[in-house]
Amino acid sequence: MNSTEPVDVVxxxxxxxSATLGMLLKELQPSWRIEVYERLGELAQESSNPxxxxxxxxxxxxxxxxxxxxxxxxxxxDKAVSxxxxxxxSRQLWAHLVKTGALPEPGRFINxxxxxxxxQGKANVAYLRQRHEVLKNQPLFAGMEFSxxxxxxxxxxxxxxxxxxxxxxxxxxxxxxxTDVDFxxxxxxxxxxxxxxxxxxxxxxxxxxxxxxxxxxxxxKLLRQVGQTRSTVNAKFVFVGAGGGGLALLxxxxxxxxxxxxxxxxxxxxxxxxxxxxxAQHQAKVYGKAGVGAxxxxxxxxxxxxxxxxMSLLFGPYAGFSPKFLKTSxxxxxxxxxxxxNLGPMLAVARHNFDLMKYLIGEVFASRGSKLKALQExxxxxxxxxxxxxxxxxxVQVMKKDAAKGGVLQMGTEVITSADGxxxxxxxxxxxxxxxAPIMVDLLARCFPDxxxxxxxxxxxxxxSYGTKLSDDPAAAAASLAATxxxxxxxx
Length: 492
What we know:
CATH superfamily: FAD/NAD(P)-binding domain
CATH class: Alpha Beta
Family: Belongs to the MQO family.
Strand content: 15-25%
Catalytic activity: (S)-malate + a quinone = a quinol + oxaloacetate
Pathway: Carbohydrate metabolism; tricarboxylic acid cycle; oxaloacetate from (S)-malate (quinone route): step 1/1
Protein name: Probable malate:quinone oxidoreductase
CATH architecture: 3-Layer(bba) Sandwich
EC number: 1.1.5.4
């Protein structure tokens, strides 16, 4: 069945990004017709699936890669504060959706979980102490604790210090403002609400092509995976929220803004345990420092997870290399993504990141014994019999042109929008889901510049800090943290 009358918005991909944009547009433009197309038979089965990500609720409370040391050894809080600001926008939106009944009881998708950083060795202890000094007076990091006393750290999380060698230099920070988020559940709840409000959410629909019509709308070709039937739909605005599949779809669109971009896929695995005795001894998310040559998303961490009401522990990730861009896609994704315009940047990235490639290939062939050894850096008493190895989701980091190096590998997310604002898409990885709300608000401003001023009153209702910085106002930061904590049943 083909549709010639354009719908207002088509969202490609059934993950957290499409769900968030859909929720925003539902309130800002309730009369718009919105359709969602997901290539799999279920929603939130790629990066938004709870076992395909760490569910951290990235707020830079524990992730050291947001505060790297400068060549002179000094630290700046700018990036960490920026990430935390973004997460507060997501928290505010979720709290608004809970208050309006769009989302169910918040414990079904978000729970308070202390965020900790754990380091070993004299130099790392000094670094962590300095990091704490820089952050402790920041309004959004209020109450963060530091200790280099094994007894104190053991009180925070016993598994970390139990049977650790005496005299080893260790240190940790802890913030009770941290959370664990089940982004799979959150995504599904959002789509449930969208469906209740007339949004058509269609599964098993593979987008095979996008072509812009003469009137500026987009003609989208679809292949139904069940039955192999083909159809088309026209849309005034298209959002490509297809995770690792986004690059190929934006390339199909032919917009010049995608030129020069490539994707660098990284696979991963986690160790997981549901052993009640172990779970009871570790109720926190504890991040360490990445190994030499490791990508930022491979920072080791031991996490409490709450999925479907059940608690478990997750350790990893063990990074690796696969040419797939999605967990359920083809080994040809990487070679098929190469174009004349992105070959140069991709080769430059390969040339400047040889150590990373060597590290990833080494991780692919790492033995179970080496995986256990990495876990024992965090949990000295760990036994492989208590843990199972699970495959995580694929992460596709952005490769882009760079005047100095020819091409760079970029951490984080990149929003690509056409000059006329009729199509936009998202590339990249972490912090991703945790900052979905601010990313989508920014997308609205870029794609609908003639409407954003009229939307601002409602945006401030949904996101009270919209247009301001909480980090500039300690009283406002404290009030926002307390207000969202009350609604979401979190630690204030």
